Amino acid sequence: MHWTVHRNTFLALAVIAPGLLAADRPTFSKDVAPILQKRCQQCHRPGEVAPMPFLTYQQTRPWAKAIRSAVLSGKMPPWFADPHFGKFSNDLSLVQREIDTLVKWIDGGAPEGDPKDLPRPVAFEDGWNIGKPDLVVELPRPLPVPATGTLDIVYIVVPCNLKEDRWVQMAEIRPGNRALVHHVNAFVRGPDSPAMRKQAYGGPYIPPKLPVTAAQKAQPISDVLVDYVPGRISKSWHPGQAKFLAAGSDLILQIHYQTNGKAGTDRTKVGLVFARTPPRERVISAVAKNWDFEIPAGAADHEVHSGVELATDVTLVSLQPHMHYRGRSYEYKAIYPSGESEVLLKVPNWDFNWQMTYALAEPKVLPRGTRIECTAHYDNSANNPFNPDPAKVITYGEQTWDEMMSGWMEVAVEPGHDLKKIFVLKPPPAGEN
Predict the structure, then answer these.
(1) Per-residue pLDDT reduced to its tens digit, 5-47
(2) Are 109 and 215 contacting, i.e. CB atoms less than 8 angstroms apart?
(3) Phi, psi of 66 (to 5 degrees)
(4) How many CB atoms lie within 10 A of CB 191?
(5) Furthest C-alpha separation in the chain
(6) CB 411 within 8 A of CB 284
(7) 396 three-state secondary structure
(8) Is residue 314 helix, strand or coil?
């Protein structure tokens, strides 16, 4: 009798156990696809920056081992902010539960599961991350790029043809040839701006190399609308916040092409989505920039500083550190009028190939008198595998083998605020302008 009971119990467990094991084993359809939609597919889909799509099981399964390595090492999804400082709305980093699910799925043979468990596919707009643009501004004709050589940055004026003022809620730059376009800045040329007025629309222009004046160095505000750099996808702002584009404005596209041994053409375009109602706050781009640093040859950990001081209360919207190949780490700190300080963003491991914008999850009000201080570290030693020349003293320059120290940020103020009264401007020395 006892044997019969135990035998029946054993048989029941033998039948149930495979079901328990199957239930504990993640599948692509039920467990992995939702993670990919949330964290990966904005890059891993046709036409985007990632080299392979992860939209289906058939596309993803061959990359299972590579995915395992990338998520365990923290290499993917790319995100470099120290989690102890600040919260950011565009944080793509995986939480531990998601990492465990992906690893368990791969270690369990990466099963597909029941396709009926798949979530509804994300409805991406073909060719855009911001949805269908209200306005597309593009180069009027393809621009030829040679196969070899060092190329100067070119500036191209393109018309917006706006008959009325508009507020930009989302913006995105789409390079026509990702293999040749290193970065693009889209600057707003207002109807009263004298910039490049002698240049015809669509013609590439290389400005003369002139010294940067003290007055230019003292002005943090920039008229950049949106940019494209390695790792950047698009820009959007919180409801009630937008950038301003006056009627009659044009865009000046600053494009840096890099040769790769094969000649080609590019026709970069900019997509804009307009706000449906006037915003509560106008978003302004600004930069805490150091123009005058010098990194000694062979220095493994050289520190450089920059900073700006607020002349009025602002809402901090986003932070975007910028350096080149020798960049090692970057930190933004707010020094408040009370003397208290707070680290706003810390990037302990800078990666030139992933120049992220860190958009605050909750916009932060910074009072008048606050100083935003930036600290960058550079590795100009032979131990830096990306260092073009560790024997060279490095100073500011636009090419990637030079360096920059730019603490970009976006702040928001009331729409009618005088832009000249956002930051404290130090007057240039006598005789300079």
Answers:
(1) 444 444 444 444 444 445 578 999 999 999 999 999 988 988 7
(2) no
(3) -65, -40
(4) 10
(5) 107
(6) yes
(7) strand
(8) strand
CA distances from 145 to 176, 206, 262, 389 (A): 12, 14, 9, 26
Per-residue pLDDT of 391-430, as tens digits, reads: 999 999 988 899 999 999 999 999 999 999 999 987 655 5
Q: Where are the alpha helices (DSSP H) in 376-429?
A: none
Q: How many C-beta atoms lie closer than 10 Å to residue 117's C-beta?
A: 14
Q: Name the region of 49 (left: φ>0; alpha: ψ -120 to 50; beta: rest).
A: alpha
- The token pair at 74 is 């923290």
Q: pTM for this structure?
A: 0.88
In angstroms, the Cα distances linking 217 to 247, 302, 314, 426 are: 29, 22, 21, 10
Q: Are the beta carbons of 289 and 217 closer than 8 angstroms?
A: yes
Nearest-angstrom CA–CA distance, 201 and 252: 10
Position 99 pLDDT exceeds 50: yes
Query: At 123, is the pLDDT very low, low, confident or very high (cuts 50, 70, 90)?
Result: confident
